[in-house]
Specification:
There is one protein chain. With 379 residues, the protein is mainly beta. It folds into two domains: 124 residues, no CATH class; 234 residues, Sandwich (Jelly Rolls). The chain contains two helices and 24 strands. Strands 10, 15, 16, 17, 18, 20, 21, 23 and 24 form a nine-stranded antiparallel sheet that branches. A seven-stranded antiparallel sheet has the order 14-13-12-11-19-9-22, with no helix packed on it. A hairpin with a 2-residue loop joins strand 13 and strand 14. Keywords: Signal.
Length: 379
C-alpha cells in the first residue's frame, strides 16, 4: 500500500546508515551537475533556476559539515580508536538533508564514498515507498482511521530520564498479515504529551517500535521486524511536524537488510528524555549477524535510535503500547504480548493502566502483562 504523507515547511537533517539511494524513489526526467553534486530533476517542472539549486547545495553542504563535526566529537567521546579495524564502518554515515519551498522538495544526500546527489520533487505530495515507514496510528483523528489495532496507555510517567521497558513477543507468520503490499503491521510503544496551550499546540507524539518487512537477508526474501521511531509535535492547528531521528553509530546492526526474528521476544526500552533526546533501544535476536544481511544466523543484537535534536521534553501525559495494521480497507491481523511492563525498572501497578482501545482487536491485561490480538476476521 502507498500512503500520502503531508510535508511541512521546514528543513531537517537525517543521518542514517546504508539506506538505499534516493534515486530509487522516482523516475528521473533530467540530470545535471552543479558544484560537484549530481542533480536529479524527478519531474519536468522541477527544472528550477541554477541560482536556487546552487543556494540549496551550499546550504546543505554547510549543514552536513556541521553534523560531521558533531559526529566526530561524539565518536571521540565514545573512545573509538582510529586504529580499530571497524572504525571506518562505524563512521560510514549517509547524511540526508531535506528542505522545501512553495514549489519544490529538495533531497540532498552525501556519503563517505560516492558523488553527492540532490533530488528535486514537485511539492504537491510525497508518496512513501516500501523502504520507508508508513504513518502509524497514533496521530489519526480517531483511534485508527486507516487500519485496525489495539492500544492501552500507562499514566505512571516518571520524570526526565525515566524509561518504560517491556519484553515484546512478536507474532508468528500465521498470526500476522504477511501481504506487505496491502498491509503494514507494527508492534510498538511510545508516549504522548497533551499540551495545555490553546488548541493543544506543543503536544508531542512518539511511536517507537518495530515494523514487519519481507525483503531481508542475503536473498532479500526473509521476514523480520525493523526498528522505527516517528516523533511528531503539534506545531499549528491540525499540523503535526515530524522530526528527524538517527541510528546509533555503534548499536546499529538490527536494520537495513537485517531485522528482529519473527516469533521472538525483544526487550524494548523507551525514553522521552535521555540526556535531552527521545530514545529507543531494542535488545533481541536478529536473523543475521550484521545490518548487511550477508548470512542467516540468529544473533543477539542491540539497536538504538535517537532523535537527532535534543528536545528536552520535561514531562509526558502517558506511555502507550500498541499492535496495529495499517491498511486501505481497515482489515488485517497482528499480535503482540507485552510482558513485565516496567517504568524505571519497577513493575507498573494495575492502577496506572488506562482503558483499552480496540478497533477489530482484543486487549487483555493481567497485572503488568498485556496481550493485544488484532484480527478483522474475528473482532
Amino acid at each position: 500500500m502507498k500512503k500520502i504523507i503531508k510535508l511541512f515547511n521546514m528543513s531537517i537533517l537525517l543521518s542514517s546508515l546504508f539506506f538505499s539511494p534516493l534515486t530509487a524513489l522516482a523516475e528521473v526526467s533530467n540530470e545535471s551537475e552543479s558544484k560537484g553534486v549530481t542533480v536529479y530533476h524527478l519531474e519536468e517542472k522541477t527544472n528550477g533556476s541554477s541560482e536556487k539549486i546552487s543556494q540549496i547545495i551550499t546550504q546543505a553542504k554547510e549543514v552536513v559539515k556541521e553534523q560531521r563535526a558533531e559526529q566526530s566529537k561524539y565518536n571521540l567521546l565514545k573512545s573509538i580508536s582510529a586504529t580499530d579495524d571497524t572504525y571506518a564502518s562505524k563512521l560510514n554515515y549517509t547524511y540526508n538533508y531535506i528542505t522545501f519551498d512553495d514549489d519544490f522538495i529538495y533531497f540532498y544526500e552525501e556519503s563517505v564514498s560516492g558523488t553527492p546527489e540532490l533530488l528535486i520533487y514537485d511539492n504537491e505530495n510525497l508518496v512513501t515507498t516500501d523502504n520507508q515507514p508508513k504513518s502509524l496510528a497514533s496521530t489519526q483523528t480517531d483511534f485508527i482511521s486507516d487500519g485496525v489495532g489495539g492500544k492501552i496507555t500507562i499514566t505512571k510517567t516518571g520524570s526526565a530520564g525515566s524509561y518504560l521497558s517491556t519484553s515484546m513477543t512478536l507474532p508468528t507468520l500465521s498470526q500476522v498479515s504477511t501481504n506487505l503490499n496491502t498491509y503494514t503491521p507494527y508492534n510498538y510503544g511510545g508516549f504522548e504529551y497533551t499540551s495545555t496551550n490553546a488548541n493543544s499546540i506543543g503536544s508531542w507524539v512518539a511511536d517507537m517500535g518495530l515494523q514487519l518487512y519481507n525483503n531481508l537477508g542475503p536473498s532479500s526474501n526473509q521476514y523480520g521486524w525493523k526498528p522505527v521511531v516517528i516523533l511528531k509535535q503539534l506545531t499549528a492547528i491540525s499540523t503535526w511536524t515530524q522530526y528527524a531521528t538517527a541510528i546509533d553509530s555503534v548499536y546499529n546492526e538490527g536494520q537495513y537488510k537485517n531485522g528482529y526474528k519473527v516469533g521472538t521476544s525483544p526487550v524494548m526500552y523507551f525514553w522521552y528524555n535521555y540526556n535531552g533526546k527521545v530514545r529507543m533501544k531494542v535488545d533481541g535476536t536478529t536473523i543475521c549477524p550484521t545490518r548487511t544481511g550477508e548470512k542467516l544466523e540468529d544473533t543477539h543484537n542491540i539497536t538504538i535510535i535517537e532523535s537527532s535534536a535534543s528536545w528536552n521534553i520535561s514531562t509526558i501525559s502517558r506511555w502507550k503500547i500498541l499492535s496495529t495494521v495499517v491498511s486501505s480497507d481497515n482489515t488485517g491481523k497482528n499480535k503482540a504480548v507485552f510482558s513485565s511492563i516496567k517504568v524505571d525498572g519497577i513493575a507498573v501497578d494495575s492502577s496506572y493502566f488506562g482503558t483499552e482501545q480496540t478497533d477489530q482487536a482484543s486487549v487483555t491485561r493481567s497485572g503488568n502483562n498485556v496481550t493485544i490480538i488484532v484480527d478483522s476476521d474475528t473482532y
